[in-house]
Amino acid sequence: MIQTRRNIFYRLTLAFIFGGLVPLLIAGTMLFYRFKGDMEQVILDDMGRTVGCAVRGAREMVDGSSSLTKHMYDIYTEDGRLLYQLLKDKSMADQEKRIQMALFLGEMLEEDSRIRTASFVDREGRIYYATRNMQKALDETAFRQWISQEGYSGEAFSALPTHADSYFRDSGNQVLTFRRSYQDLTSFKTIGISLGNLYLDVDVGKLSSALWDMGVGENGTFSIIDKNGICIYSMDGSEIGKPLERMVPYLSSMTETRGYLTDARRHVVYERMDGCGWIVAAQVGRDAVMSSLNGTVQSIVAFLSGTFLVLLCLYSYSVKHIWRTVGRLEHEENENAVIVESLSRQVEYLSSGGSMVPLKKEIGNIRDYFYIMGIQHENRIQLEVSADEDVMDASIIRMSLQPVVENAVRHGLLPKKGDGTVSIEARRKDSILEVTVMDDGVGMTEETLTALNAGPDQDGTDVQTGDKGLDTGIRNVHDRIRRTFGPGYGLKIMSNEGKGTVVVFCLPFIPGKAEPEEEGNAQQGSDGTSSDRICE
Questions:
Q1: Parallel, antiparallel, or unpaired: how do β-strands 420-429 and 381-387 relate?
Q2: What is the pLDDT of residues 210-220, one digit of tens each?
Q3: Does residue 257 have a pLDDT over 60?
Q4: CATH value at residue 522
Q5: Burial class for 444, CB neighbours closer than 10 Å (0-12, 13-18, 19+)
Q6: 497: containing domain
Q7: How far is 206 from 404, CA to CA, in rounded Å?
Q8: Residue 519 resides in a domain
Q9: C-alpha angle with apex 116: 115 to 117, nearest 5 degrees?
Q10: Which of 20, 304, 516, 536 could lock 28 by a disulfide, CB 3.0 to 4.6 Å apart?
Q11: Which of 299, 355, 365 is nearest to 31 (CA)?
Q12: Secondary-structure percent of the chain, ordered helix, strand, coil, rounded to 5
């Protein structure tokens, strides 16, 4: 009999280690790295979208400036001549030519209010200009020096780096300069001969306005540089016009039209712009991925810890009752098999792919959770589910009900004396899927409820409810719903202290299996209506 007990004890220990603890650690490790890989991919996709949007905005601004410089071919002087005729007129006095050129360039200023200065340097080196820098004269020596520093590669149109227009005394406006070579239109034989270069100084705010809503999150940076690494635009205005040290090491590797680079410190997503030689790049530190995973890591650790404790409790329970009758032991071993099966289903559910699942799968996972919690708490908590048949196959976000149900158990039922029940109801209302999670627990104070209802909609506001776990769990679910389906959906919370809490999910009704096209975009309901509607 003693040997039998030892054998049972030995087998239970091996089962606990190799059938419970080791698979749990392996599953946890796999789950973590899968989440980490998914999070990195999400961040890179967001960076790629940011870069693409920035390229379109910058290209629109550059193309607009290019078209504006071409306009000099269409402007007539007061006596009805084109620019090339004015430039080639040897009989006109120098002062008169300067007046005519100033009028000509003044018309260029009128085309766009963000042009600060229009300058023209003819092939003899004479400088003509018109400027909005009132009562400030151009320092021609400084202007020629700046031109010589920039050089000239011979292209018809080029965009020069962001710089200060310091060739005007006591001026430091940040400008982008666009240069176009003006061709001699006298005849077909002279086309291709340059009569000079037009320079348009455009306020850098024109580029900033095109990129005002570009961003890669609080841990990322976004910038536009030229081929030499000089900053054209940056989220940090102090970097504009200077070599961008953090990007210079990557320049030699940016050989493709668009691409992705990574090293031990950061991820870089970039795209090169044709014509102007600019490179639009977004980067984020690799540690930012880990930072963004903090919540996920905590959830995984909590899940693994909870599962480990359950396994440990089961192990201890089995050891304490090892001396009972074989029949009772066998009964307990059938029960253990169901628990392991429930745990296996939960691990499989967490590790399976896809962000959307049928409602019935999410509820099935909650049933497994309640089965284990019922054993842990001696069946003092119960689960009731009431749902129409046509909604059980509707798609919802994976692990969206689970945190709310766990909150109901942890913060509502467990602090309560006696038994408690969590009820889940699901109904379809036209294009809306309404899921209600109710508990008859201790409820919330009016202050906590007010803060919790206000918190999810105050973007970036640090609202505290007094219970960090409750606040974080509810807010994370609310944020996931809004990122997936749009601001018209989310959670509504009602509670009476001492009576219980009700959490209502407002979701679009998505029949069958469906994946949202892109997080952050409003989804379409089953009847084609936009998720921008506000759920009452």
A1: parallel
A2: 665 555 554 56
A3: yes
A4: 3.30.565.10
A5: buried
A6: 377-536
A7: 47
A8: yes
A9: 100
A10: 304
A11: 299
A12: 45, 25, 30
